[in-house]
Amino acid sequence: MKDEIIQFIRQNIIGKTLFTDEVVYKLENGTLEGVYSDKMMFSDWMQTENGFKFNMTTVTQELVYNLDGKGMRTTIAKDYTGTSVFRYELAFRKSTNQLTGYMRCISTTVQHQTMEAVVCGISGVTFDGKELKWQEKQLLYRDNPVEADKYKPVAFDSKVCFYLDNGKAVFEYLPTLWDVDPDTLERSLSKDDYPPYISREK
Prior knowledge:
The chain is mainly β and 202 residues long. It is built from one helix and 13 strands, in the order αβββββββββββββ. Strands 1-2-3-5-6-7-8-10-11-13 form a ten-stranded antiparallel barrel. A hairpin with a 6-residue loop joins β5 (82-92) and β6 (99-108). The two termini are 28 Å apart. The mean pLDDT is 95.
């Protein structure tokens, strides 16, 4: 599986630019509404002794709006617009022959960003010759907006899938959000529900 995964990523993902159509999501019982779109590029491929690493750069347009009692947008609560670089590093474990690793944000121009010192572990990697899938589980917790200058501790877990559609690369990101007790690190499923993010090469 190792050679097949490396070949798939190098030939079909690295060097590609994908676009995420506008995604709308609601937070805090419908008092906040986020609007997200981006352009993402995969680059800086490096094969290592036991695995590989690469970067994903996202040029993001993301605004979180306050909503009034009628659900209409009023003021901007958060502006997460900017460019961010995420590093993926994966390796095949000699003990199990499984591919595991992590991803983290290594630089960003986003003001008041919430990704600093946040790491996601990667596991459950599968490749059937057509779809490359894995799971990302965030360690500890990060911040999510509640209202102006206020946040709550949360953690994102997600399912990731890369595949080709008519020869064009597609990246699917299906997030699950958890509320986190910062003292015990116990998780409970959040009432906030994020939709899938689907990015496509044009």
